[in-house]
Amino acid sequence: MTGESTPRSAPPGDVLARLAEVVASRKGADPERSYVARLFAKGPDAVLKKIGEEATETVMAAKDGVAQRIVAETADLWFHCIVMLAQHGLAPSDVLDELARREGLSGLDEKAARARPPADGARHSSHRGEEK
């Protein structure tokens, strides 16, 4: 098994948590020596641009249907999403917690619940800072 990656039996959350720790450790590191530090130094828009690029590459790989490329591009996308989460003080565990909360819910019901205004009448801002 020499040279192989983490075995499939490793809990996914553990792999993501370890990766998130490495990403977080690169904040403030030398941008000349660390790709992640370079992304952090360029600011949030650089990371978001990379996510857009990687999402497009993932879609293209899926359209091509080559499994190895789909996996590789998805890994790139997830990695850059972990960097974005770290920029906002979040971790993969926050996303995993949200997925766990949604587990067992109908996707249609869950989406409808997000579209309904809160029961207390509170308004939440959208991703562009506008009121809903």
How would you characterize this protein structure?
It is built from six helices and no strands. With 132 residues, it is an all-alpha fold. The chain is globular, with a radius of gyration of 18 Å. Mean pLDDT is 83; it is low at 122-132.
Helix-strand makeup class: mainly alpha
Number of helix segments?
6
Average pLDDT, rounded to a whole number, is 83
> Low-confidence spans: pLDDT under 50, at least 5 residues?
122-132
| Helix fraction bin | 55-70%
Strand content: under 5%
Order of helices and strands: HHHHHH
Strand elements, count: 0
Largest sheet: none
Instruction: Tell me, briefly, the overall form.
Output: globular
- What Rg is obtained from the alpha carbons, in whole angstroms? 18 Å
Distance between the termini: 53 Å
